[in-house]
Amino acid sequence: MSRLSDSLLDQLLLQDVPLGDLTTEGLGIGARSAEITYCARNPMVLCGSEEAGRMLEMRGVRIDHLLPSGRMLAAGEIFLSAQGSAQSLHAVWKISQTLVEYLSGIATRTRRIVDAARNVAPETVIACTRKNFPGTKEVSIRAIRAGGGIMHRLGLSETILVFPEHLAFVDEPPDIWMTKLRAQAPEKKIVVEAATVEAAEQLIACGADVIQLEKFSPQETAVVVDLARRQRPSPVVAVAGGVTEDNVGAFVETGCRLIVTSAPFFGKPCDVKVTLKPC
């Protein structure tokens, strides 16, 4: 699983404590020995625990207990505990708690979609889009992977994905522009989005490697999956747009085994209880 860099974690810490902790320093309690524990208030897929632990270690804190990202936690389960000075623990407390809450929220929603899909067909792949909040790509990728998903596309430089918005500027038929794309990037697959069954059928006939169905119904998806199976070699069919935990099973039942979704990025963070006290 990907690892967030210490430089990124240090930036997060500096955002929260740029010039010291006025409260802890003003009360004169910074040198006191203290302990901190983190636990899940509700069942959740854990993500970001290693980063929380590293932020504590970066402030000279000793880790006593740490569970890994990707672990399914029960309500009340402790996943991180540590000891150090009150000043260090207060400096890391909120930023580490918030990071784990947000990442675990994404990981938990991902796992729910993965489980719902694989209850129908275990080989189904859940691929999450790049519609993470801008500036959070590294942490978002970590959360998606902790939940059992993969990234659909990291950016424009990574894959060829032809949208109707591209084709609005192209006057040639699909077989011609696909040939040009293959010549420009012979090691890349050609992924093309289709908005109708008729468009998908034409793209299949022209040899697209992946047909991405945008906001298709399960019934329309089943038609395209059947068309793709008749083609040799058969293209991959991916469903995208509007896929959630509640409807993913219906799409998998069509025979589609690649599900593209943004749903894990949108929802509430998980709730993590932190206890910080003298020891």
From TrEMBL:
Ranges where the Quinolinate phosphoribosyl transferase N-terminal domain occurs: 21-104
A single MF term (Gene Ontology): nicotinate-nucleotide diphosphorylase (carboxylating) activity
GO biological process terms held by the UniProt record: NAD+ biosynthetic process; quinolinate catabolic process
Lineage: superkingdom: Bacteria
CDD domains referenced in this protein's UniProt entry, alphabetically: modD_like
Keyword list, A-Z: Glycosyltransferase, Transferase
SUPFAM superfamilies (UniProt xref): Nicotinate/Quinolinate PRTase C-terminal domain-like, Nicotinate/Quinolinate PRTase N-terminal domain-like
Gene3D superfamilies per record: Aldolase class I, Quinolinate phosphoribosyl transferase, N-terminal domain
Presence of keyword Disulfide bond: no
GO-annotated cellular components: cytoplasm
Domain Quinolinate phosphoribosyl transferase C-terminal stretches: 106-264
Family in the record: Belongs to the NadC/ModD family.
PANTHER family tied to this protein: NICOTINATE-NUCLEOTIDE PYROPHOSPHORYLASE [CARBOXYLATING] (PTHR32179), PYROPHOSPHORYLASE MODD-RELATED (PTHR32179:SF4)
Protein name: Putative pyrophosphorylase ModD
Organism, scientific name: Ciceribacter lividus
